[in-house]
Amino acid sequence: LTEAEFIAALRALPLHNGAMALADDAAHLGEWVLTKDLIAEGVHYLAADPPGDVAWKLLATNLSDLAAKGAAPVGAMLGYALGDDTFDRAFLAGLGEACATLGCPILGGDTIRVEAPRVLSLTAIGRTERRVLRSGARAGDALWVTGTIGDAGAGLAIAKGEVGPGALLAAYRRPIPRLAEGRVLANRANAMMDVSDGLLIDAARMAEASGLAVKIDLDAVPLSAEYRAFRGQDRVARLAAATAGDDYELLFALPEGEPASVAATRVGRFAEGHGLSVFDSEGEVPLPSTPGYMHGTSG
Amino acid sequence: LTEAEFIAALRALPLHNGAMALADDAAHLGEWVLTKDLIAEGVHYLAADPPGDVAWKLLATNLSDLAAKGAAPVGAMLGYALGDDTFDRAFLAGLGEACATLGCPILGGDTIRVEAPRVLSLTAIGRTERRVLRSGARAGDALWVTGTIGDAGAGLAIAKGEVGPGALLAAYRRPIPRLAEGRVLANRANAMMDVSDGLLIDAARMAEASGLAVKIDLDAVPLSAEYRAFRGQDRVARLAAATAGDDYELLFALPEGEPASVAATRVGRFAEGHGLSVFDSEGEVPLPSTPGYMHGTSG
User: Do B16 and A105 touch (CB under 8 A)?
Assistant: First the structure.
């Protein structure tokens, strides 16, 4: 089955109310928020990626899901496939740095030993006082995004061999989840999610979940100085940034005219209707056939 | 690293208090209990096992960890490796039966698509009012076990081609976690855990965690009529039962003389000292070199 077919079939099983009908990135149990990711070598990370960075990213991507709920991290359950000693030790060192830096202790887990490819799993638990979903955007809301877009996608190209700025590689390998921003925004945003598969596809998902159309101003998409130096800032470079994955920035909807109150950029607007459209100073931008980064079938 | 080395290294990372120093099978967050298992084809289940049974067992074994904490199931987060449509549909059907029968709805999860061997993950969340650990046994306590022992081990032999009773195969493929018994016992037992790797090794683990010795009466180990018909009940048959895995019965310590108050059998006694010893009517029983079933390095 495809992921979409599997999730549709899963909806026919007994579902907890807190599963939010499997339409969101996290589950809610009272004030607790749970999110789970499975990653596989060669699919979600490169076999050549440093093991410490793999560990960092495994925790950081789950914490990004918590950030999008405005939740503070509480702990993580790790599922680990044991490998050679060098990998295991470097993984543990990176995980320790991530736990300490991002403020998320280990709660427990399980280990297995299997043949390659290695599969790793993490369930992160957070706590929040307010539920913010991706489905709450209203017609007329402005769409905002934190930070800059496209750095991690460019970093992936550098990890694969292109020569480019170290800051872009770092954005790909050691993303920093927007936990503080998420906690502030949870009390203000009508809808929020993290940008994991690409700005355009994730904005389209927020619009679809909210029953609205969304229009993106491609010229407004925030690019870092390093990205502009590496890829430029013409339409092609901006489209590449907005369709690359792994940004782990927060995408959120606020009533038009309200300030973001965190460092963020207004990149679009919701309206009645449905679908995604993209404009820049030259007019409407034809959408690429692949509007985001798809890890096989994984979200 | 071995699993023990990995867990020891993990203890050096930032740990949540509820991790119980990674010495137990579950983590505690207030009244919530979390447990996680990762299973791999060819390691924890056979490639020929029916997919619906794989799903059932994945949920049931996690719920058995909750049962050992006296916790009622709240929900499950599933990590699923997508495969061919036939497997996926049969897996979902079995998971639905397990969710409905065992009383645990789906909370969320993640899917990936990777090359074989398939790896699956589940995090189960439960709720309990009392913490019962494996480390609370006291010198003089009696050791009890629910149900019968060895059925699943015999069922594994049948799954691999031996001819034998269907009830044993069912015990291997569709274990029933002792949730009701666990909730009753959580208020009475000094220590509790589930029997996942074998009665002898798990009893030895409870004794070690409690800083005690344990002595098992092999003649008392409860065997089903089907097991006795299949393997007999001599010392060899009893040792085979007590060193096979996958029973998912509850093992618990009660003050000597107190009734179990659930269907269970007294199989041993804790004493000052350390280590495991096994006796039957003929005297001390030499311990096998492998006192339990080890899934590679997984617990």
Answer: yes
